[in-house]
Amino acid sequence: MLADANQNISSGKLSEGVEPDSSIKSVVAFIEVYFTNFSKKVKGEITTSEKSLTDKLCKYFNRQAGNYPFYFHHENVENHASGTSPQTDIGTLSKKENLTVGDRSYGEFDSFFSIEAKRLTPGHKREYVIGQERPSGGIERFKKRIHGKELKYAAIIGYIQGKDSNHWYIKINDWIDELITSTPDIWKVDDKLTKQDIELEGIDKFTSKNFRSEVNGQEDFIHLFHFWINLII
Predict the structure, then answer these.
(1) pLDDT in tens, 157-191
(2) Closest-CA residue to 22 (of 42, 2, 37)
(3) Which of 152, 185, 164 is nearest to 233 (CA)?
(4) Across-strand partners of 72?
(5) How far is CA 177 from CA 59, 183, 189, in A?
(6) pTM
(7) Residues 6+ apart with CB under 8 A from 106
């Protein structure tokens, strides 16, 4: 497996009965370590744009990924056959031409683990969860298959630029509760964030199991890892 080259693999546990592929665990472990280190480089950037922070993050990740069997690509195109394809903030690609994760195969140009990024700042509406006039929400875009259509696992990273992680944890789950009440056929209790224990300082980790739709009579989900860093000094 891709992750065999990495000896520092986290448990990557999402919830009882869910066991990510070792390749996914390898990327999750990488993010945990290096996203924490990145937070020290951008501490105090409480007005910097999401795009600028993510551009820096992708470059930083790639500098650290030298011995890992994967690399990162900023603004990764989802569908190369479409001239108007959505772009994921960061795609994760294997350094080999082909990779199998679980029961799905990915070619040399396919992201096998996609990452969206969102600012967490007062007045930024509900963009982490859902867009106001278009489907621009972080969780929403994965649920609607705008991002990660062929993925079972993906991530959302959050840059906290106001308040703290506990505030956003409560606020985001409150927003999802409202959506569950108003659109129970789309939003489910599993869409809510569940806090995970993590030993690394400066990073908060959550998980969610996000319902997408029914496919061939069976419910389809994407499992999201959520990683947050606090940029407030």
Answers:
(1) 999 999 999 999 999 999 999 999 999 999 999 99
(2) 2
(3) 164
(4) 92
(5) 36, 10, 8
(6) 0.89
(7) 93, 94, 98, 99, 100, 112, 150
Tokens (6 digits) for 56: 């820096």
Contact between 125 and 171 under an 8 Å Cβ cutoff? The reply is no
Evaluated on CA atoms 140, 141, 145, 148, the torsion sign reads negative
Residues 6+ apart with CB under 8 A from 92: 27, 70, 71, 72, 73, 111, 112, 113, 114, 115
By residue count, the chain amounts to: 233
- Residues 95-115 pLDDT 10s: 988 898 888 889 999 999 999
SS3 153: strand
Question: How many C-beta neighbours within 10 Å does residue 1 have?
Answer: 15
State the Cα–Cα distance between residues 6 and 92, nearest whole angstrom.
15
CA distance 172 to 185: 19
